[in-house]
Design a protein that fits this description.
Elements lengths: L1 E3 L3 E2 L1 H8 L4 E4 L4 E2 L1 H9 L3 E4 L29 E4 L13 H13 L4 E2 L13 H15 L6 E3 L5 H14 L3 E4 L9 H14 L3 E6 L9 H6 L6 E6 L4 H11 L7 E4 L5 H6 L4 E3 L7 H12 L3 H10 L1 H8 L6 H9 L13 H21 L21
Parallel strand pairs: 1-3, 2-4, 3-5, 6-7, 6-13, 8-9, 9-10, 10-11, 11-12, 12-13
Helix pairs in contact: 1-2, 3-4, 4-5, 10-11, 12-14, 13-14
Length: 391
């Protein structure tokens, strides 16, 4: 009989430690995840729990939500995390070679962390296997150089936990979660959803507020979730600076180390100046050098230079964000920087494809104005603005 005392037991743990044994003894506070239960049924393993009286120190089940996870080996989520695009080949499959080149480039350009399977990574347009493959590839290319925050949002709790277990097995540092999409939930149910994931997740959790695509995460609800220390922070893409400031003000009053990341590049500089931990910024996948510089200028309290950079990137952001299906504008920006991004996963009209060709030329003009070497743009206006490369 194998005896396990782990607070959370996943299928990976069972596979590694059970061997050929068919009997398992658990301590009273151990929690079996859904995939662990599936594993036990599939392999005919019998389970028994020790009585609390047999434990030298028994942790009550009610203490689990507030349990502080081990801090050994934890990575800090500060600075600029890049929500990378997914590059496809002509067969509509993941282009592993070009993805590897792209991820290496981002890290070498100074990105502080990687954020696969976010909105920019089109996770809802990828299959379950593709979502896993993208994150596995990024972990292999990264080799521990920067923290990895991976999107684990799925349509139901069971799939979220299975994805979190897989991510934990390949070296992801934390997961990001939006509210379950499609069906709107009551705030009471939404609390129970995140609370149950916090009880069972093998990884820390960043709550992701993006009301453009899912229901909003109210501050009252986030405050109620603070006792679950697995929930280590939030990303806010609401484009609402007052909400972001109130998030920091209210939640850090109880959790001073609570991570708050902004997901909107137009307010990156003021957000960091007001205390944001950093940002998950889609434009960092196109101009990582400038976006990381804005972050560092904010930390250095260099208001003049930071404000100048913040204004200089606005035209580029608007070109990529408006007028075309998201995130095709950002993928076009990556292409201008010299990467073969491949075809879109989403079907596009001929008119939209023509728009992207014009957009490529416009983005080239803006990047050329910033001082970058890009594909030769046509008819770019002369601005006489100083370049901002390598500032």
């Amino acid at each position: 009989m194998v005896r396990l005392d782990d607070p959370v037991i996943t299928a990976q743990v069972l596979e590694a430690r059970l061997g050929n044994d068919k009997a398992l003894e658990l301590c009273p506070h151990s929690k079996l995840t859904p995939s662990a239960l599936d594993y036990l049924r599939a392999h005919g393993v019998t389970v028994q729990r020790r009585a609390a009286s047999e434990m030298a120190i028994a942790a009550p089940a009610s203490a689990l939500p507030a349990r502080k996870p081990s801090t050994s080996g934890k990575r800090e989520f500060k600075g600029i995390l890049c929500p990378n695009i997914v590059i496809l080949n002509e067969k509509d499959q993941i282009n592993y070679k070009e993805m590897e080149r792209y991820i290496d480039w981002l890290i070498e350009a100074g990105i502080h962390g990687l954020y696969p399977n976010g909105s920019t990574g089109e996770f809802v347009r990828l299959s379950w296997q593709e979502r896993q493959d993208v994150v596995k590839l990024i972990c292999q290319v990264n080799k521990g150089r920067v923290p990895i925050l991976a999107g684990a949002s799925e349509a139901n709790l069971r799939d979220v936990l299975q994805m979190a277990e897989f991510y934990a097995s390949i070296g992801v540092d934390a997961i990001s979660l939006v509210p379950p999409y499609y069906y709107k939930m009551s705030n009471t149910s939404l609390f129970e959803y995140f609370a149950e994931i916090a009880r069972q997740s093998p990884l820390d959790i960043l709550l992701y507020n993006i009301p453009q695509f899912t229901q909003e995460l109210p501050l009252d609800l986030m405050e109620k979730l603070l006792p679950f220390e697995r929930i280590m922070g939030t990303k806010d893409s609401s484009r609402d600076l007052p909400r972001l400031i109130n998030t920091m003000h209210r939640l850090r009053a109880q959790r001073p180390d609570y991570v708050v990341l902004v997901g909107c590049e137009e307010i990156l500089f003021p957000s960091v100046m007001m205390g944001a931990s950093g940002g998950t910024i889609a434009t960092s996948g196109i101009i990582p050098e400038v976006i990381t510089e804005i972050y560092h200028k904010a930390l250095a309290n260099d208001i003049e230079k930071g404000r100048e950079l913040q204004y200089r990137i606005l035209d580029l952001i608007n070109l990529m964000l408006l007028g075309v299906n998201f995130p095709e504008g950002f993928k076009t920006g990556v292409a201008v920087r010299g990467f073969d991004v491949g075809p879109p996963r989403q079907v596009m009209s001929g008119e939209e494809q023509q728009y992207l060709l014009k957009l490529e030329a416009q983005i080239s003009c803006v990047l050329g104005d910033m001082g970058y070497s890009v594909k030769a743009p046509r008819a770019c206006p002369v601005t006489h603005l100083p370049p901002i490369v390598a500032r």
